[in-house]
Amino acid sequence: MSWIILIVAGLFESAFAFCLGKMKGQAGIEYYMWGAGFIVSLVMSMLLLAKAVHTLPIGTAYPVWTGIGAVGTVVLGIAFLHEPVSAARIFFIVTLIGSVVGLKMS
Question: How far apart are CA 96 and CA 36, in angstroms?
Answer without folding.
Answer: 29
